[in-house]
Amino acid sequence: MTKQQGKEPAVWQLVNVVIKPKWLELAIDFAIGLGSSAAVETPSGFQVAFPGAESDAAEALGALKSYLLGIGTGAEVSTMPVVERDWNANWKAFFKPTQIGDRLWVIPEWENPDLLGDAIVIRIRPAMAFGTGTHETTQLCMEFLETVMKGGESVLDIGAGSGILGITALKLGAQSVLGVEIDAAAAENFHENAELNGVSDGITLQITPEPMLDSVFEVGVANMIQSRLEAALPYYHDAVKPGGTVILSGVLAKDDTSFRAFLDEKLPWRIVDARTKNEWIGYQCIVE
Question: Within a domain: residue 74?
Answer without folding.
Answer: yes
